[in-house]
Amino acid sequence: MGGNQMPDSKQEQVYNITDSDDGFSDISKAYLISKRCMDLMFALIGVVFLCPVYLIIALLIKIEDKEGNIIFRQERVGKNGKLFYMYKFRSMVSNAEELKATLLEKNEVDGPVFKIKNDPRITKIGKLLRKTSLDELPQLFNVIKGDMSLVGPRPPLLEEVLEYTNYEKIRLSVTPGLTCYWQVGGRSNLSFEEWVELDLKYIRERNIYIDIKLIAKTILVLFGSKGAF
């Protein structure tokens, strides 16, 4: 697996943010327990049924690039600022992080997030994986571990969080997710401000019905290419 070593315990928590800190969230324990049970059930079922897909993707990645890792492991910021490793199928060349410095001026998203269309670091199989969001499938293991949920704000990079305003840090008050309003409502076509507002809308209104609806919408748009970069 790729990625850097996990920082020591003194650095593992970036911020201490709880649900009560966001000023508009009042979530019951029953919802949180139900959400966790749903996460485990769907994630475990998904891993079992998608095993053949995992194997095919792994084979295709290795055929294109024998030297690189199949799984890309990257440090992300989770609930209450806790750092964890998020897993993805590798969709970029092995030295993608080193090349990022040469592409910063081409960033097409405002705020602390870095994204560009036609990123030259993306491999041929990587383009397909990203277009179909299949590169995200290993995050089902993050869900099983409890670092992530099926639904919630996407987990940011530490370098992005360090540029957050206090208002934007509210995104860190809940467990990050595989999908969210941003994933099904425009993705990279949205500005960072719109992205944050959608995440805070979810935090304010979240319930099991909304979670199930977002999961269903995600399945419907899974193979769509709109905004997928």
From TrEMBL:
Residues 35-223 form the Bacterial sugar transferase domain. One of its GO terms (molecular function) is phosphotransferase activity, for other substituted phosphate groups. Keywords: Membrane, Transmembrane, Transmembrane helix. Pfam families: Bac_transf. The chain crosses the membrane at residues 40-61. InterPro entries: Bact_transf. Belongs to the bacterial sugar transferase family. This is Multidrug MFS transporter. It comes from Terribacillus saccharophilus.
